[in-house]
Structure formats: structure tokens, C-alpha cells
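Protocol step 4 of 6: structure prediction from sequence.
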Amino acid sequence: METDLSKIHIRRFLPADLPNLLNIDHGYTTEYVWQMDVQEGAREISLSFREVKLPRVVRQAYPRDHRNLVEDWLERWGILVAIYGEDADKPPGGYATIAHATEPRIAQITDLAVAVPQRRKGLASALLLSAEDWAAEKGSTRLILEMQSKNVPAIRLAQKLGYDFCGFNDRHYPNKDIALFFGKDLD
């Protein structure tokens, strides 16, 4: 699919965007999952992830409590919104939140969501590329993406844009889902 990035407008979050962002369906469907396999021995632990096809397509809920999103957003370093189409004054169809990571000069995308009717149009790619530029301008040298191990569409997007797997947390989210981390150097 060809994406016409000239039809995507990225800008900073405005308070008037709040109702539209809250109405975005943050869930997704997938027929794949990155399955974690751990082998423990007396002097060795081996860990691997592999993509596994599920027996059916599943609907996956967003791992964060929707009621706390606004509070979380206000703590973020930056929020970018994406608008698709000729009219840049339309309500946003997606957003990305950028936070300071625990290490200096590392930024982290903690939320990336695109409204269902706007998906597969390049909004997520445009948001990530803009977040890279924004974080680099603020002095970050690396950008980390976080996602559920079930979010194979996001994993594939990260890989397509040059992000490398750099870690996981097996109980990161309130629902105890595994978080995967992908990173990209910005310099």
C-alpha cells in the first residue's frame, strides 16, 4: 500500500483535542502474538520470542485503564496528533505520547493510537517519524517504543521503521501483559 504522507498533518496536542483523543478505539485485532519461551538451567537462562499464528483473530483491549489516560497524558513530555486529509483543522485521527525515559537523553513513546477508520493510511508512521524529530530537537539520542507482545501490527511497524528489539518486561501493564521495547538511535 502506498502512503501519501502529504495528506498527513502532525502538530502538537491542543486541549480542544482531548474529547477526540478519548474517543479513539485504542484496541486492535491480531492473528499473531510474540510468544515468550524461557529455558532455565543451573548456570544458564535462555529466552526467546517468536511470532506465532493464533487459531483465530482476536480482539485485544488497550492495556492501560482508559479512565486514567488524561492524567497520564498530562505527565508526558509531549503529545503529537495526526490529521489525515486536506483539511488540517479536522479532529485528530491519532496521537503519540512522548515521555522521558529513566535514562538521560532517551525518550519513550508510551502511547500510540490511531482511530480505526484512519488506520492503514500512514498516520502511525508519520507520528513516529515526527516523534523522532521532536525528541532529537529536544536533545534525545534514542527513542524507545513500548507495546504489548500481542500487538504484532505495532511490532511490524517498529521493525519497518528501523527499530530494534531492546528488551521486555513480563508484567509491565496493569493487566500483567508482557511489554516489548524497540529502540532506535536518533543521531
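Step 5 (inspection) to follow. The radius of gyration is 17 Å.
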